[in-house]
Design goal:
heterodimer; A: mainly beta; 15-stranded mixed sheet; globular; disordered N terminus; B: alpha/beta; Alkaline Phosphatase, subunit A; 8-stranded mixed sheet; 4-stranded antiparallel sheet
Chain lengths: 257, 471
């Protein structure tokens, strides 16, 4: 089988990517950075262009002892009702997978003018200890045994920026999709693409894809530029696209650094 | 042939509220449902209900059912702790009609929700006059599950996909307080539905028993792969690692038994074999997303004060084509679309890990079962049976057939051995021997040896339809 052809879904989001304005200037994947992504979702015929359904902000703060803290702010405006947010702080190890060792997150839902009287806010914490992860959510606590390497969906936004494109072995791990363990993940480099060769008028931009397959996810591709900066994650119907202008010089609280 | 012409028509007991009662109290109750109210006498023995509805899950798409190409540890957990009905059928394998049946216990021709929208009639080449249609809503004279249980003191809460007619739950429903999560795509919305449901289970303060409906969108996202986005199904694979993971095609993949014209129009012919297998692979990943979401809700329930007294009911509105008969999605009377999982778990009440392979059950049975356990009458003219005798292994004079509707004018009768399909004004009918030919590859309708079987099934269908009330 010819493995050169891709499952990258780039064409699905061509109306967004064809006019994409890439970031410029230096970028250090191991340094401090702030990224803001627009989330596009393709459903119900919304293709050209697909609508923006949310915003993901991630800030990486390196730690002197190694590893980093990721601050995450994910806001999703669902169709028809309300705004959902997940705010998280994730302490990651300094390894290839940015393995999360400790985190806390808050989920909230807000629907203006909704008559609901109850609170829709949920606190979650997780900590790795003794080859397991203890997750507490509200009054619930569960322990996940770790039988293999693991990482989380947020941590991968960081980790893929430092992966070797050629010659590195495929990474195999369990994915923590929030708190849900999804086993048998494989992440590997598979191809580079020049966008200008893809569509007439597209920017001169070479991107390098890392393909992830595994339980509970559609095949998805992380696209980084020559400097390693993660520009796009295309996952089934969803695409996270780096908003370079909104990312420049910002940090998670919204101010300029 | 049959002992009776389908389930009994359950008469309303004298204590049942009237439609006027429901309308009078519904709106006010929606605003006050989550405030603390005095406990209803005897409420402590009435179970709570967590009704989990998913969208487009085929009955075979669970690892607990022996499928090695999908991993569903959380749904398997539910199967291990509950009773699984392996002959469970959707009353109408299309989203809106099926949901109207689940919510009312009535057949879709009675609720008036017979299709996903009038534009669908055009798509199928059906005249608009083929159906009475209340703008996609259940006609007002039929109470839905929320309206019914609220009348009997239940706190009724809805979260997720509604699709009657809008595919999200509006901020207000007559019978339910709504947890607002919106709708659209399962990969994004379902985690929010799970969290909102979890928050409710862990923070509710009312004393009344509750009915929480958590209506999840997955694995329905697979629909978009063929409706709009053929780019999602590549002609070649990016990695040989992926090739090793692709499921094989089912034995009836290319089977084309003689069928009514409308079914011949619904096959999907754009995929290569590799694309079909990738489609199946992708479908199972969507199922696993559903599984993770279900796990979050079950975890929240199990760690809540309500774990011991909550009956969990899990089902799907309809199945999925899954490459059988060259099908994607639903819309068909074949088992790929018609058969759905139905698992009922209640650790304090029911046996764990039991599988019922013999009794024919339908989505319209669910509300009757819940009413039975809640100690309240079934809604007037509910078409289903309570599954309680089966769940408790008591001798039951069970039905001999179930009926289903499909694509507005299609009707199905399923008996223990046969499936009979008839479409209005189409000369080709279908008869399958489901024991000898479970993959539905040979239409026996025109075989003279089965003439009496066809006649018997026609009578069953005619008798069934004569009892339905089309408003």
């Amino acid at each position: 089988m010819d493995v050169r052809n891709s499952v990258d879904y780039l064409d699905l989001f061509r109306d967004v990517l064809r006019d994409y304005l890439p970031p410029s200037g230096p970028f250090d994947p191991a340094g401090r950075w702030f990224h803001q992504y627009r989330l596009y979702t393709v459903v119900n015929g919304d293709l050209h262009p697909p609508p923006v359904r949310g915003t993901l902000q991630i800030e990486r703060v390196p730690q002197a002892a190694g590893g980093a803290i990721l601050k995450v702010n994910f806001e999703k405006t669902s169709r028809y009702a309300g705004v959902h947010t997940v705010q998280a702080t994730v302490v990651c190890a300094g390894d290839d997978l940015s393995t999360p060792v400790k985190w806390n997150s808050t989920y909230t839902a807000a629907a203006p003018a909704h008559p609901l009287k109850m609170s829709l806010e949920l606190q979650e914490t997780g900590i790795a200890r003794d080859r397991s992860i203890i997750i507490k959510r509200g009054s619930e606590q569960k322990r996940l045994l770790l039988e293999s390497a693991y990482t989380s969906n947020w941590a991968l936004f960081d980790a893929v920026q430092r992966l070797a494109r050629q010659g590195g072995a495929a990474r195999r791990f369990t994915l923590l999709d929030d708190d849900a363990p999804k086993a048998n993940q494989v992440l590997d480099f598979y191809q580079s693409v020049d966008l200008k060769d893809r569509w007439p008028g597209a920017p001169t931009l070479r991107v390098h894809g890392f393909l992830q397959i595994g339980d509970g996810i559609p095949p998805q591709v992380y696209w980084v530029d020559d400097r390693g900066e993660l520009l796009f994650l295309i996952s089934g119907l969803n695409a996270f696209v780096l908003d370079a202008a909104a990312s420049a010089g910002q940090h998670i609280s919204g101010g300029r650094s | 042939m049959a002992k009776q012409n389908g389930p009994p028509l359950a008469p309303a007991r004298s204590s049942a509220p009237t439609r006027r009662d429901i309308l009078r109290t519904g709106a006010a109750a929606a605003l006050s449902a989550l405030t603390t109210r005095p406990a209803t006498a005897g409420h402590k023995v009435r179970p709570n209900f967590l009704f989990l509805i998913c969208d487009q899950l085929h009955i075979d798409a669970l690892s607990a059912c022996g499928n090695p190409y999908v991993r569903t540890p959380n749904l398997d957990r539910l199967v291990r702790t509950g009773t699984s009905f392996m002959q469970s059928h959707s009353p109408n394998p299309i989203c809106c009609p099926a949901r109207s049946c689940l919510m009312t216990g009535r057949m879709s021709v009675e609720t008036s929700v017979t299709c996903n929208g009038l534009e669908q009639l055009k798509e199928f080449g059906l005249p608009q006059t083929a159906v009475h249609f209340n703008h996609g809503e259940i006609i007002p004279s039929i109470p839905d599950m929320g309206q019914w249980f609220r009348q009997y003191g239940y706190e009724t809460v809805y979260c997720g996909k509604w699709h009657l007619p809008t595919n999200w739950a509006p901020n207000e429903l007559a019978g339910f307080t709504v947890l607002p999560v919106g709708g659209g795509e399962g990969s994004i919305v379902d985690p929010f539905t799970a969290r909102a449901s979890a928050a409710y289970l862990q923070t509710r303060t009312g004393n009344d028993p509750f009915l929480l409906v958590s209506s999840l969108l997955q694995p329905h996202d697979i629909c978009y792969w063929t409706i709009y986005n053929e780019d999602l199904t590549p002609k070649q694979l990016p990695t040989s690692e992926l090739e090793k993971l692709l499921p094989p095609l089912p034995p009836n993949h290319l089977s084309r038994p003689a069928a009514p014209q409308i079914l011949d129009r619904s096959i999907y012919t754009k995929f290569s074999e590799l694309q079909w297998r990738f489609y199946l692979y992708s479908y199972y990943r969507q199922v696993e997303m559903l599984d993770a979401t279900v796990g979050r809700i079950l975890d929240a329930l199990e760690s809540s004060p309500h774990a011991d007294n909550t009956m969990v009911i899990f089902t799907s509105d309809h199945g999925e084509g899954a490459a059988r008969h060259l099908h994607v999605q639903k819309w068909y009377p074949y088992d790929e679309a018609l058969k759905v999982p139905l698992v009922i778990s209640s650790p304090r009440r029911l046996e764990s890990g039991y599988r019922d392979h013999s009794h024919l059950v339908s989505g319209v049975d669910i509300i009757s079962t819940m009413c039975d356990y809640a100690g309240v009458p079934a809604p007037p003219n509910a078409r289903g049976y309570s599954l309680r005798p089966l769940l408790e292994h008591k001798n039951a004079d069970w039905r001999d057939f179930i009926a289903a509707e499909v694509q507005v004018v299609g009707r199905v009768i399923r008996t223990a051995q046969y499936k009979y399909v008839r479409y209005k004004d189409d000369p080709i009918e279908q008869l399958f021997d489901m024991q000898a030919d479970p993959w539905e590859t040979q239409n026996l309708y025109a075989d003279s040896r089965y003439a009496s079987v066809v006649t018997d099934h026609r009578k069953l269908l005619n008798g069934w339809e004569s009892k339905l009330i089309v408003y």
